[in-house]
Amino acid sequence: MSSIIQLLPDHVANQIAAGEVVQRPASVVKELLENAVDARATDIKLIIKDAGKALVQVIDNGLGMSVTDARLCFERHATSKIRQAEDLFSLHTKGFRGEALASIAAIAHVEMKTKQDQEELGTHIIVEGSKFVSQEVAVLPKGTSFAVKNLFFNIPARRNFLKSDTVEYRHVIDEFHRVALAHSNIHFTFYHNGSEMFNLPPSTLRQRIVNIFSGKTNEKLVPVQEETEIVSIQGFVSKPEFAKKNRGEQFFFVNDRFIKSGYLHHAVMAAYDGILKDGAQPSYFLYLTVPPNTIDINIHPTKTEIKFDDEHALYAILRASIKHSLGQFNVAPVLDFDRDSNLDTPYHYKDLTGETPTIQVDGNFNPFSEEKPSKQFSSYRKPEPTANWESLYVGLKQDTDEIGQMTFENEEVTSSLFNDEEVEHSVHKTYQIHKKYIVSSIKSGMVIVDQQRAHQRVLYEQFLVNMTVHQASSQQLLFPLNLFYSSSEMELIAELQLSLRNTGFIFEENNTDHIVISGIPVNVTESEVSLVLEQLLSDLQDGIPESSFSQNDTIAKSMAKSLAVKTGTHLTEKEQENLVNGLFACKDPNVSPFHKPTFITMRVEDLDKKFAI
Ligand code: ADP
Ligand code: MG
Question: Which segments constitute the MutL C-terminal dimerisation domain (predicted)?
């Protein structure tokens, strides 16, 4: 048979990539503004028409581009910002993928004018749907102007998918706020349909916030400042009496990049614990600076997520410093800085005291029975209903049958990993190292488990089973929880309600700006609910999957991510053992729900080899 694989032509590949990078006019705004900031502009103008659908233009007074670069910048993977893979770990720029301009040019009419300071003349280029229409020499001021017209002109389906002007305009404003707040030293102006909407002169951070969010904001702000080895924190939070019903003004910046983090949001909320009215939301503008090599932002071109090396410590520091500020400014009635920050994590099991492990004797154990290995496994995992340490796997406690079934199915997987003999002694003793890995001896050598990823896998499978096979059970709340969200977040929650019910959430009534929850999944604690939903909403910012299967999958992944023990968490020996056993009872213990390895093994021979040198 003849060969059938072909390389896609560049313009098709660019259009596909554009689907990732450019979802709406606001995505273009973000990319162009960030490029202008990266070009060290001190004055940036944003001009849009019809909420950006007809025009998005950004004019900067930055470095400009040479004639060659002006042409090259539209190529995919063309970037001046990184040269080698290592550079990814010391990023100082917003962009680095080199795909924004190629993507934008594939799906719009783009006109670019650019000139470097030292040059007499500049370059004027027109590109339409990846085709170069013209390139001329022109008399221009220093800097660059990008005009992006008729977004999605060649993809009518995408164009029709855009929301009303009001909604798209809202998204543009959001992006504008994020960039303007991250760079208060830059002069920004913003015009919509010919009217000036914002004029933000270079200023201090406090003035910038006030200029954006009106004069009254000033009296509401309390400064936050903290310097530690792993993070320095700067910024402002609002006094509790000014808390709002919805979550408009909440911003985290990490190394001057806007990010979303349900986990850090939870840390802020924890600092306000006891001083906010039910469901009230504080405003915050928090700037975290961390060493670039301790974060990973290389996740998705448009996502605003970030991975920190030590989220757990960050949580504690952030919470403590906000609490401190609220206290200093006499706005928090209760202060208790001396508490062990570990006790304040949102993880239920942390609050529980360890127990001396008890030896369980299985009276029915018959050494001659053929089902020996499975007995061994399931009797080990069937927990005493009252044993506190089991709370790490509350789900297992609730539905032993389900898990029993999973165990049974998993036996093969497990046995293929370790031969039968090993299964019997699968966990001799475990050691936790660097609050990150759990090491255990197995017959052939040793296994090293990544605690966070392993727990994600365990929780993910539990949630999936609950959602797809069985109706999950709920725990009724004594007092229903009121949680307030923006209108777009409310839309998302409404769309997901059925799947969320399947995990065990019970929704009372639907309002326009808040939800009322009267029951929650058994393996979630009340204090974790808002964190779980935050994370879910931020995971869904690019839209809700179509099929109910992938909706379940997304929810299970997101909940597993929020609830899994984090790197940096101390685990008792019993918790370690449970985690390792739980992992190897999973259907697919090898990888986390995010396809990262959960454990590695080292054979004795490998160790021998290392010592032979
Ligand atoms: P990235 O920002 O990831 O490098 P882009 O596609 O956004 O990729 O831009 C490609 C390159 O074009 C940038 O690396 C930069 O060298 C150049 N560039 C883009 N916008 C500007 C601008 N406003 N001023 C100067 N150079 C720019
Ligand atoms: Mg860029």
Answer: 429-571
Q: Is the CB of residue 58 below 6 angstroms from any atom belonging to ligand 1?
A: no
CATH number of 212-328: 3.30.230.10
Give, in degrees to the nearest 5, the angle at Cα 135 between 131 and 138.
150
* Ligand 1 within 6 A of CB of 39: yes
pLDDT digits (tens, 9 = 90+) for 173-232: 999 999 999 999 999 999 999 999 999 999 999 999 989 987 677 788 999 999 998 899
The alpha carbon of 520 and the centre of ligand 2 are apart by a number of angstroms equal to 42
Question: Does ligand 1 lie within 6 Å of residue 235's CB atom?
Answer: no
**Amino acid identity for residue 95 in this structure:** G
To the nearest 10°, report the CA torsion of 576, 581, 582, 586. Answer: 140
Question: Rounded to 5 degrees, what are φ and ψ at 488?
Answer: -70, -35
Supply 22's token pair. 């450019």
**Which two structure tokens, joined as six digits, stand for 311?**
């989220």
| Nearest atom, ligand 1, residue 34 CA | 2
CA distance 114 to 585: 60
d(CA 188, CA 204) in angstroms, rounded, equals 14
Q: What is the DSSP string of 306-356?
A: -EETTHHHHHHHHHHHHHHHHHHTT--S---TTS-GGGGSS-GGGGSPP--
* Residue of 466, 519, 510 whose CA lies nearest to 491: 510
Q: What is the pLDDT of residues 464-498, one digit of tens each?
A: 887 776 667 788 888 888 888 777 778 788 888 88
pLDDT one-digit tens code per residue, 77-90: 767 666 666 666 66
